[in-house]
Every structure is written in structure tokens, then in C-alpha cells.
Write a structure and sequence with these properties.
By secondary structure, this protein is of the alpha+beta class. It contains 9 helices and 7 strands, in the order βββαααββββαααααα. A 7-stranded mixed sheet has the order 2-1-3-7-6-5-4. Helix 5 packs antiparallel against helix 6.
Length: 320
């Protein structure tokens, strides 16, 4: 799908056009390619006289494929977060092409920042002034969305912490470790997205259009500071996850050690009574206690004393 955003007096009007009817007027500020077909890509390439990256090229990780200049345009690709309300958000690449004219975006999913920008443009039509300004406002929406996802993930981690360090004894550590694992995967993907955005901002800061506009340059510096602060915050969340995971594993070891200690003490306590019972279970003909009326009670008392004595000794030593 090719969606054009045209400058207007009241708002930045979106318009979906087929590839055979694509015509770039001077008032076109933004070309948004949404899961484009090959015909749609070729139509935009002919209109702009630029070679757009394919989906496979967008997925490449090396910097030379994600940040480069060609034919007077700057091509930047960043991994944006989507499905941010889930425990493990997804990330996918989006390419932004800064041309002397309109902004071009290429995406194969629907990230929340794009709809956030559309809503913002409806409220503030003055923001729809140029392709570079639209890029900066879109990046601001991306940072805002990343902040929301990061805050939600941090809240999940705090909720797990209150359970890991709960005073009650019944804690399902298996479930908590699973939640921590999902939170760790979320922080890794947030880190990947924010680090890519920081590289994009550093690359775009050398753009001639932004260098000549003090307001745009300051806006870009603000976005860079926001990205760096979110990276630091995300790293603190990741450190908290690692600490809680270590604490949970330590508590599991303590719990298992307590169980083993109880079993060991019970085994030691039952050994002397078992020895006495074994002795009186022997089938010898001459055992003086057997015919006596006090023999059975004496054996029971001996077994009881032999079982209680080790427990009292363990308690005195502080092992119980």
C-alpha cells in the first residue's frame, strides 16, 4: 500500500493511491509504504529516482546496510517495537529515507508510533510542514512508545520482586523464574531498539537539512538524550532482573537445603530406636528381658529415649 500525506490548511491529509496513479506533487510531504508489493516499490523508485531497499536488505544487521547515503538521500533502518502490550514485545525493521523532498518510510507491520503521529497531526496541523519535521515527530512518537513499553516491563519486574522476597513460605519459584525470563527477553529487545535509534540519531545529525535548522537540530539533540536515558533505565531494569534471578535461585537452594536437613535429622533420630528394635527382634532362646513383664515397656522407653536424645542434642547445638 502506498499512503501519501499531503500538506493542507487544516491537517496533513493521508491518501492511499495505487502504483499506476502515483504522482508526486510539491505538497507531498510523506510517502508511507505499508507492506509494499514490488510494483509499488518500483513506482516510488521511479517517482523519486532512488533505489529503495528490499525487505531482505532491511533485515541485514551490518551498519553499512542500515545507515548510508545515496543520490542525495539518507537511508536509515531501525528496529521498532510492536505488540508492546505483550510480555515479550516484538521488534521489526523500518526504513526511513530522508530526501530533499518528502519523507519515505518502508514497513511491513503496523507499529503504534505511526498511528500516534497521525493523531498528533490531527491535533496540531502545523507539525506537518516538511519531511524532515515529520521524521523528527515520528521519532518522538517512537521514543514515547519505547518509554511506555519499558515502564510496563519495569512494573512487571517490580511485581515479581515483591513475590521473590515475600515473607510467606509458599512461593511458586518456577512460575516466577519464567516471568523473569520473559522480562529479560523484553529488556533485550528494548535495548536493541533503543541502541539502533541512538545510531540513527547520530547518523541523521549530519544531515544538511537538519544542520541548517537550529530548531530541528535541538529537537534531534533532545531525542538523542531521551534515547540515552532510556538505555540507562533499561540497563538498570536488566540488572534488577539478574539480581532477582540470582536471589530466586538462592532461595530455592536454601529451601532444598532445609528439606534435606529435616530428612537427615529424622534419619539420625530414628537410627537408635531402630537399633534397639532390631536387637529385641532377634530369635535367640536366651534373652533375659523377654519373659519379664517389664521387658516390653522398658524396650519402648529405651527406643523413645534413644530417639528424643539426638533431637535435644541437635536443638542445643542450634542445628534445628
Amino acid at each position: 500500500m502506498i499512503r501519501l500525506y499531503r500538506a493542507a490548511t487544516q491537517a496533513c491529509e493521508p491518501l492511499d493511491v495505487p502504483p499506476d496513479r502515483l504522482a508526486l506533487d510539491p505538497d507531498i510531504l510523506w510517502i508511507d509504504l505499508i507492506s509494499p508489493s514490488r510494483d509499488e516499490e518500483l513506482a516510488v523508485e521511479r517517482a523519486l529516482n532512488l533505489a529503495l531497499p528490499t525487505r531482505e536488505e532491511m533485515s541485514e544487521l551490518e551498519a553499512s546496510s542500515r545507515l548510508y547515503r545515496e543520490d542525495g538521500a539518507a537511508f536509515v533502518t531501525a528496529d521498532l517495537i510492536h505488540r508492546g502490550d505483550e510480555d515479550i514485545p516484538a521488534i521489526s525493521p523500518v526504513t526511513f529515507v530522508l530526501t530533499p523532498g518528502p519523507l519515505v518510510t518502508i514497513r511491513y507491520f503496523d507499529p503504534r508510533p505511526f498511528s500516534m503521529l497521525e493523531e498528533k497531526l490531527d491535533r496540531e496541523p502545523a507539525l506537518c510542514s516538511s519531511g524532515a519535521d515529520l521524521f523528527l515527530n515520528l521519532m518522538e512518537a517512537v521514543i514515547d512508545r519505547a518509554s511506555d513499553v519499558l515502564s510496563r516491563n519495569a512494573e512487571r519486574v517490580e511485581a515479581v520482586a515483591s513475590l521473590v522476597f515475600a515473607e510467606r513460605k509458599t512461593v511458586n519459584f518456577e512460575r516466577l523464574i519464567g516471568r523473569l525470563g520473559r522480562a529479560h527477553m523484553a529488556t533485550a529487545r528494548i535495548e536493541q531498539s533503543l541502541a539502533g535509534l541512538a545510531r540513527v540519531f547520530a547518523f541523521v545529525s549530519l544531515n544538511e537539512r537538519l544542520e541548517k535548522d537550529p530548531e530541528a537540530r535541538e529537537h534531534l539533540k533532545s531525542l538523542t538524550r531521551d534515547a540515552q536515558s532510556l538505555i540507562v533505565h533499561n540497563q538498570s531494569v536488566a540488572a534488577g532482573i539478574n539480581f532477582q534471578l540470582s536471589a530466586a535461585l538462592g532461595l530455592i537452594n536454601i529451601e532444598q537445603s532445609s528439606i534435606i536437613k529435616i530428612v537427615s535429622v529424622a534419619s539420625v533420630a530414628f537410627l537408635p530406636p531402630t537399633l534397639i528394635a532390631s536387637i529385641y527382634g532377634m530369635n535367640f532362646a536366651h534373652m533375659p528381658e523377654l519373659p519379664q513383664p517389664w521387658g516390653y515397656p522398658l524396650a519402648l522407653l529405651a527406643m523413645l529415649a534413644a530417639g528424643v536424645s539426638p533431637l535435644l542434642w541437635f536443638r542445643r547445638r542450634g542445628w534445628l
